[in-house]
Amino acid sequence: MKIKQNTNTNTNTNDANDTGDANDAGDMDNVNHPTPNPTRIDSQLIEDDSDILSLSDVRDTHQLHKSAIKRVIVTGVTGQDGSFMADYLLKNTDCMIYGTVRRLSVKNYTNIHHLKREPRFKLINLDLTDDYSIREAITEIKPHYFLNFAAQSFVDGSWDYPIQTWETDATAILHILESIRKFAPYCRFYNAGSSEEFGDVIKDPQDEEHPLRPQSPYGAAKAAARHLVRVYRESYDLYAVQGWLFNHEGTRRGKEFVTRKITHTIAKIKHALEQDKKYDVLKLGNLDAQRDWTDAEDFMSGVWLMMNQDAPKNYVLASGKMNSVREFLQETLKCANIKHKIIGDGEYEKFLTEDDKLIMEVDPKFYRPAEVHKLRGDCTLAENELGWTRTYNFKKLVKRMYESDYEQLKNR
Ligand code: F7E
Is residue 218 part of a domain? Predict the structure, then answer.
């Protein structure tokens, strides 16, 4: 077990050039700054003023879509899940979507750039650590659905900034629930839950009955939020759910997460090898960790199904298959057509090309103070009761991520 050194003075878990994180709350460097009015036009926030809603814009769209069109607030819309959810809703419903963004010193709208001219997609300011902005958004928009994908979602980082993790992933949920209870009790609320809540598992695979045994500040905050969601559901008869989403990956995954770190770095190495150039070696932590890796886009239909049942209920979304970090790397190398050999083990394990060029080495800096060794979900309930299905398996997912990274680098 490693004792984690808190050397990170910058709490920004996102690379400025990154494509965004799964449940991206992005950098929190503005936590102590005054939060702007969520409905105020903010020309700094986006490329031009017309992209963010003013108060009168919100009222206009209410007028425009008075009763027929449902309004959905999607937080974390610049991250992987939020942006895929927005895409899913635009494609499969006629809802009006209000994506929320937080003031960032380094803006990152890569994942929603394609929605810029979409008339059913609007951006508003909302900061999860400011209950005033949550209340404003709920009272002004009067949403039919509130889908919360914003979070401090990087498990490893939750040891470095546990308070921020708690405020964003637990306290903020209480503020959302309170605002919904007081001002929009008809609003259906979804909070992104995590397999990390199961943590130190006692049964394989894990289903909805598995006890919560979180191993990180992140897992503990999500578990606390789960209890709050249940308490509010039962106390006030709210439609409030928190699905257990196992690891979900894709082309919009943040590069600090192991899957995207692997596909992106191997794509860079592949280009370098093709051009006989120097490259940075891939450095990883625990190669033995096993996860249930599923495609993030496949999860969005599951979330929407969860939100549209007769009664609220929490479901596990997963694939039921488990692979190690090492297997993810091997599969990526297969996609890149890089033949490799492995030498050493534990901290000394290395991946080399056939002609002895170093590809990957273990760096204990990426070990966690407490590791969740294995997670595999049992999604039988979601399949049987929601009719939820998936289109991508592990191999297709790795291929999709690697090829996307390889192409993006080629076009640079
Ligand atoms: O780590 C190991 C690491 O950071 C996966 C989030 O979406 O899924 C995600 O959390 C595994 C761990 O994701 C490196 O120790 C080895 O065992 O990609 P990850 P995560 O921690 O599983 C859950 C369901 C969420 O809810 C979270 O929000 O990979 N690992 N070497 C590494 N991990 C990272 N990040 N970097 C490495 O170099």
Answer: yes
